[in-house]
Amino acid sequence: MDTNIISKKKLFFPVSEPLKDYLFNYNRLVKIPFTYSELLRYFSIIPQKDKHGKDTLWKTVLFQPSEMEDIHYRLVKMYAMMKFDGNESLMEHLQVDRVDYCPFGNSKPFRIRIVNQYNDNHDYYYVKIADASRVYGLELEDLLSPNRINFLVDKDTLVEEHIAGIPGDMFTKQDYQWLELNEVRMAKEFVKFNERCFVRLLGDMRAYNFVIDVTADFDDVQYRFRAIDFDQQCYESRKRIYMPQYFKENNYYVDISIKHLNPETVQQYQQEERTLIAKRIKRAHRRTDRLLDAMCMDTLSLPEKIDTLKKELAAHYSYQPFLKSKNMGEIVRVSLELLV
Hints:
Blueprint: H1 17-25, H2 36-39, E1 44-49, E2 55-62, H3 65-84, E3 94-101, E4 110-116, E5 122-129, H4 132-144, E6 151-154, E7 157-161, E8 166-167, H5 183-200, E9 210-216, E10 221-227, H6 251-260, H7 263-283, H8 285-296, H9 303-317, H10 328-337
Antiparallel strand pairs: 1-2, 2-3, 3-4, 4-5, 5-7, 6-7, 8-9, 9-10
């Protein structure tokens, strides 16, 4: 696939009033104790390198000594808000170990590392610009996937919890050869992940935009593919962008799927995933409807992209109602209605 058809710079869409109303109703809209722009007031950065000495995309940022204590306190307070409803009595043993910044990509995130002083256990969360595409992507992930995810929004600031797992682009490298790989189960989960992304129109799921959660079962190992980047929720024009199988970065997972799965088995796993998504929609139908109502009132892409995508999906499914869609929210709604 020619990934050049992905927009080099995705447009930013602010959080609209209908989306804010939705977030408020479901306790996602809160008063965050700092803003994204405040974290940009660092005075120095230190490049981060991995254990092999290779430079990563992350930089550790340093704040002025006069501001550091206050900023760190508010960062810990934010962690407490996400994890235990802001109970400050549980904050005393927590501290900020590091604040990292990635200046590349659309979201330009900050990564906050929180450490428990009693046992040195650490956790992360992320601070990003609150782009509407990303917020819709996170909420659809929480509603329609097997994964729960916690995030909070305040004006132009978005805070997301860390999603644990092995990055998809690192999974096959030598560092992880200690894993006893069950290729059949891996292939099954990749097919289901591919279908999940396509149904809810989450794009650009190249290997570095998802992680693999590995769980030991009583007789083997189970895998789950989890998206970690939601910038490309229903923005692009081509249906292939919403299907991870077409990215060359995912060739390893495509190859083992071809090796172990015949067309009938692929179809079975696709239908399994569609059935599970349909059940999740029915269980949370009111909340899903409210989210889709907000999406249908929102601007999430360009007219020419919307026009191309609805035509491709109408042809793919042989389902003409796609052609009546006026925006990306309506396209997502039709895609989900096909399941139920």
